[in-house]
Automatic annotation (TrEMBL):
GO terms for molecular function: hydrolase activity. Pfam families: Glyco_hydro_2_C. Keywords: Hydrolase. Residues 70-237 form the Glycoside hydrolase family 2 catalytic domain. This is Glycoside hydrolase family 2 TIM barrel-domain containing protein. The keyword Hydrolase applies.
Length: 437
């Protein structure tokens, strides 16, 4: 009798264990949460979603075009917060699911540079309680991939207790949600931050790094600084405004859309694709548009929704082939015969000529738009909101085939922008800072 009971118990245990194994897949198919985990084979890390390998081909997307992201064959996007002011987290996840995309969901964590005090235990606990509610609301959504705890919390901070708070939040999330890994993002990468993460954030599953011009250095630095786990690059793209040459009056010189596109491809190959062991994918910045120093600097889309050349690069990266129609390329752009790197200084109310030369692979007919903006005076850090400068009226005397003659405005600091449209939802763009005095 005892032997029979033992056999029955063993059978019941095996049956329950098998049901448990099946339940994650069955639950997901029925609309339950995806089961996301990190696997390791030898020295190679891999992200698995419901048991299948999932290499992140994604973009940062707050308000951008989700349909276009899916159309270009990405598989994921990241956010910076659960409520972006326009859509709730549920609405974001529902839209992602509609297009077959997964979401690394950002969780807003207060920053010391905005005045938060991580020595204030009450405030830290209140933040944790707020985050708990956000997690409970969406933890079982099928489109959820990874929890991203805060954004660039190491930017201009002094109190390492922020990492204790991050670890505490990660531990809480794992208790509430065993199905999804956690990460936090760093602005750049340094030995100090890796030491803090290794010592104080042992509960994190993944490290996230955000790099721009120096992206190709990431694989080497990851190893040099002693991060031995998996990582992803959660922001990368255009050369940062802090990394470029400036004019004599301090205006950072933005690369034109063709230079940017070339750098996107080069940096992806050197800083992401080059690491096949620890890197589990990336999110390009930004699948949308924003004002940061200029309205064209970081978004791979323009304000009117047109695609820049960098979208075509991402299409190539995600598909292994170029899109059928390519964006117009900037061959050259000068004002008064000078490039943006030659400190263009004009006199007021005089006529000057600008000329852009465009190369279009399909020889599509190009239409041009010109705009003059005052140099942005609202300069923030860390991607904080900036207001777009108001365009000024241009006194145009002649305009034809990429050539513009106009009278210079009143004394001040400005930028002349040109947009080249091929009629297929693509625009090449460039700008030249100039001073009138």
């Amino acid at each position: 009798m005892k032997q029979l009971l033992c056999v029955l118990c063993i059978c019941l245990f095996i049956s329950c264990k098998n049901d448990s194994k099946k339940s994650k897949t069955e639950q997901q198919l029925a609309g339950g949460p995806a089961y996301v985990e990190i696997s390791k084979s030898g020295e190679k890390f891999q992200l698995l979603v419901n048991g299948a390998p999932f290499y992140i081909k994604g973009a940062g997307l707050e308000f951008g075009n989700v349909a276009a992201l899916a159309e270009h064959n990405a598989n994921s996007f990241r956010t910076w917060r659960t409520d972006n002011g326009k859509k709730s987290a549920i609405e974001v996840l529902d839209e992602a699911q509609e297009y077959g995309l997964m979401v690394s969901m950002g969780i807003e964590v207060e920053r010391e540079r905005h005045g938060f005090d991580y020595d204030d235990e009450k405030a830290v606990q209140e933040q944790k309680e707020r985050i708990k509610k956000e997690v409970l609301e969406i933890k079982d959504h099928p489109a959820l991939l990874i929890w991203v705890i805060g954004n660039e919390l190491n930017l201009n901070y002094t109190n390492p207790k922020v990492w204790d708070a991050v670890n505490d939040i990660s531990s809480m999330i794992h208790e509430l949600d065993p199905n999804h890994p956690t990460t936090t993002t760093l602005a750049g990468i340094s030995q100090k931050e890796i030491n803090y993460i290794n010592e104080r954030c042992k509960d994190l599953d993944i490290l996230s790094v955000q790099m721009y011009g120096d992206l190709p250095d990431v694989p080497k630095l990851i190893r040099e600084y002693g991060w031995k786990g998996p990582y992803m690059v959660t922001e990368w793209g255009a050369t940062g405004h802090w990394e470029v040459p400036t004019t004599t009056w301090g205006a950072p010189i933005e690369e034109n859309s063709t230079l940017k596109a070339g750098n996107y491809l080069k940096r992806y190959k050197g800083g992401i694709a080059a690491d096949t062991l620890q890197c589990i994918g990336s999110y390009v910045f930004l699948w949308g548009n924003k004002q940061e120093r200029t309205p064209t600097w970081y978004g791979v889309f323009l304000e009117n929704g047109k695609e820049t050349e960098s979208v075509g690069v991402m299409h190539f990266i995600w598909n292994g082939k170029w899109p059928e129609n390519r964006t117009p390329q900037i061959a050259s752009f000068v004002l008064k015969g000078n490039t943006a790197y030659e400190n263009v200084i004009l006199e007021p109310a005089k006529e000057y000529t600008a000329q852009v030369v465009i190369k279009d692979i399909e020889n599509d007919p190009i239409t041009y738009k010109w705009e003059v903006l005052p140099e942005s005076e609202e300069v923030k850090e860390g991607g904080d909101h900036e207001a777009r400068p108001k365009a000024i009226t241009i006194d145009i005397t002649e305009e034809k085939d990429g050539m513009l003659k106009f009278k210079s405005p009143a004394p001040g600091k400005y930028r002349l922008f040109v947009y080249a449209d091929d009629g297929f939802n693509h625009e090449g763009t460039a700008n030249i800072p100039f001073m009138v005095k």
